[in-house]
Amino acid sequence: MYGGAARASGNLGLTVIRRVPPPAPGARQLLTFLREVIRDGFPLPGLTPEVRRWRATNLVHLRRGVLRLGVARALKLPFFHGALRLVPIYAGRGPVDLGLVGLRVVTTAGVAFLVDALQGSVEPEILKYHGIGTGSTGEDVGDSALVTELTTEYTGNVRATGNLAEGASANIFHTEGTNTLDESPGAALREHGIFSQAAPGGGTLLDRTVYAAITLASGDGLLSKYELTLSAGG
Hints:
Blueprint lengths: L24 H17 L7 H26 L4 E12 L3 E2 L3 E4 L5 H11 L10 E5 L26 E2 L3 E2 L5 E9 L8 E7 L9 E10 L6 E11 L3
Antiparallel strand pairs: 1-2, 1-3, 1-10, 4-5, 4-8, 6-7, 7-10, 8-9
């Protein structure tokens, strides 16, 4: 005869899985902004060697606007800022898209012009003329002109007339224009501005951006794409 007893045994392990909260709205805006800046302005793999080299040189200019805009987006503060993209167009080989080159700087004169426009004393849609120059002095809100703007090098001796459009969303003003040169500049191009008139040497400067050197010759052109973003914050 056989006999015995059996008792159940075992071990139980528990793991608490907590839902990870989504990033706060400000953090999401900041991450989206940084991804766009890296994608459009950094020397990433997959780009041509020419573009990678130029972007690496230009990082010192691009980063000047990143910190302040990043803080404003993270804290959901109201802000407005310019963004400039450039495409040199070489007569012998066509366009080279350099991407995002700068995020600086809306001027005091430009802000005053917009206030006047709200009062009806000036027309806001005349802020569409693209000027370029060879000056390399850093941007300042007190700028009222380019440091060394082209003159006779412009085709027709006038700045390019940009279009008037809405950007990717309703709070973005977009304008782009192409300056084609009929003379070679005395130095490499390093600055861009949006003005209220076509003739060089005058008009209100809305925004000035300095970037790494771009060397163009007679017959070459520079397509500039400028956007002014206005955010209400919150």
